[in-house]
Amino acid sequence: MRGLMLASLDGDAAAYRVLLADLTRYLRPWFARRLSAAHVSHAEDLVQETLLAVHSRRMTYDRSRPFTAWLHAIAHHKFVDHVRRHAIRPTVPLDDDAPIFASDDSAHAADRRDVEAVLATVPDRTADLIRQTKLEGASVAEAAARHGMTETAAKVSIHRGLKSLMGRFAGGGK
């Protein structure tokens, strides 16, 4: 193959065609041996990529060096590029990122303590109903069912608890 490469570099188009045909026959099994069974169908693509690289970089071939070493370097780089392109990388859809990224609630810790201190001033069941409906987003029906009471009774309890809190804290220093 070295002789064909040298002749093609000197302008012999027929030698270049023979060289490319020989390289194709040589590279197919070379790549097939290195590819896994799942990717053996990619051998032809790798052969074509390597032939294109040989063609575009043929002027960089040092005539005093072995041709097969130069060819193997190109083929090896094409193979490594292929492995990198097809490497299995774990991905997580952005919709499912909640378990991966912890939320930083440290800025709201003081707010939570204040709310809990305020809710401690009303009866426990009323505080729990307010917490569930106003802070956690539960419906009045869900909160009432958790406490074994009617929806109407839960609404009244929440209303009275909020009214009591407003009376204590809305005065602004009374």
Automatic annotation (TrEMBL):
Domain named RNA polymerase sigma-70 region: which ranges? 31-87
An example Pfam family from this entry, by short name, is: Sigma70_r2
Q: Which GO terms describe its biological process?
A: DNA-templated transcription initiation
Q: Which family does it belong to?
A: Belongs to the sigma-70 factor family. ECF subfamily.
**Span of domain RNA polymerase sigma factor 70 region 4 type:** 113-165
- Supply one GO molecular-function term: DNA binding
Q: Does the keyword Translocase apply?
A: no
Family matches, as InterPro entries? RNA_pol_sigma-70-like, RNA_pol_sigma-70_dom, RNA_pol_sigma70_r2, RNA_pol_sigma70_r4_t2, RNA_pol_sigma_r2, RNA_pol_sigma_r3/r4-like, WH-like_DNA-bd_sf
Top-rank taxon of the source lineage equals Bacteria
* Listed name of the protein: Sigma-70 family RNA polymerase sigma factor
Which keywords appear in this protein's UniProt record, sorted alphabetically?
DNA-binding, Sigma factor, Transcription, Transcription regulation
